[in-house]
Amino acid sequence: MGNVTITNHPLIQHKLTLLRDKNTGSKEFRALVGEIAMLMCYEATRDLPLKEVEIETPVSVAKAKVISGKKLAFVPILRAGLGMVEGVLELVPSARVGHIGLYRDPETLMPVEYYCKLPADITEREVIVLDPMLATGGSAIDAITQIKKRSPKSIKFMGIIAAPEGLNALSKAHSDVDIFCAALDEKLNEHGYIVPGLGDAGDRIFGTK
Ligand code: PRP
Ligand code: URA
User: Fold this and answer.
1) Is the CB of 133 under 6 A from ligand 2?
2) What is the pLDDT of residues 12-59, one digit of tens each?
3) Which residues, given as ranges, of the chain have pLDDT below 70?
4) Average pLDDT for the chain
5) Quick check: CB of 83 below 6 Å from ligand 2?
6) What local confidence, expressed as pLDDT, does residue 1 receive?
7) Closest residue CA from atom 6 of ligand 1
8) Which of 183, 180, 184, 200 lies closest to 192, judged by CA?
9) Does residue 201 have its Cβ closer than 6 Å to ligand 2?
């Protein structure tokens, strides 16, 4: 089974509380999603491979470390994953960005794919899939299945809130994928929403409800 990390840093937990609050409007909600994504990215990139290079400081020659290889690709799951992109690019501006469009059928809760565009050199990159909500896990499982067909070097999943159902389903379906979330909530309700959660992430980011 892949590693599951719940990033409980105080800054993340504080911002998450503001994010959950139903009185937080779209503008602040978007900013918070970006800030949480940036803080979580710090943790999710902890094991990136480094190589040694030689540089000259103003004082002397020095051996120093840089990230090796072709580095990263972020793949947000549309729509809500888009809210996390700006934050992670603040930390890794040279990363490529792919997109997967999925929505949950409101009756069956099954993901329906409508878009997929991934970087051409994805085989040389480590992929981090972005989606704030891991509810039943269907969307993340489907997105990762699609990405695996293009053989990236590795895949991680970075969400904000997970339900136990989604976390179990994702780790079972893709046991090689490390999962990073800021909170593990209580359960799903009868409509497939995370309880207590934060409501519909896409609607709150884009103000569509
Ligand atoms: C939300 C969310 C996830 C998915 C999670 O997207 O952003 O992608 O639901 O649910 P799951 O784990 O049960 O699949 P939604 O389908 O509402 O689409 P949207 O982002 O376009 O609003
Ligand atoms: N998608 C959301 O946006 N919120 C949930 O609680 C579950 C799925």
Assistant:
1) yes
2) 999 999 999 999 999 999 999 999 999 999 999 999 889 999 999 999
3) 1
4) 95
5) no
6) 66
7) 103
8) 200
9) yes
Q: What is the DSSP string of the chain?
A: ---EEE---HHHHHHHHHHH-TT--HHHHHHHHHHHHHHHHHHHTTT--EEEEEEE-SS-EEEEEEE-TT-EEEEEEETTTHHHHHHHHHH-TT-EE-EEEEEE-TTT--EEEEEEE--TTGGGSEEEEE-SEESSSHHHHHHHHHHHTT--SEEEEE-SEE-HHHHHHHHHHTTT-EEEESEE-SEE-TTS-EESS-S-HHHHHHT--
How much distance in Å is there from the Cα of 163 to the middle of ligand 2? 10
Nearest C-alpha to atom 5 of ligand 2 is from which residue?
193
Structure-block tokens of residue 203: 């609607």
Residues 6+ apart with CB under 8 A from 47: none
Cβ of residue 155 lying under 6 Å from some atom of ligand 2: no
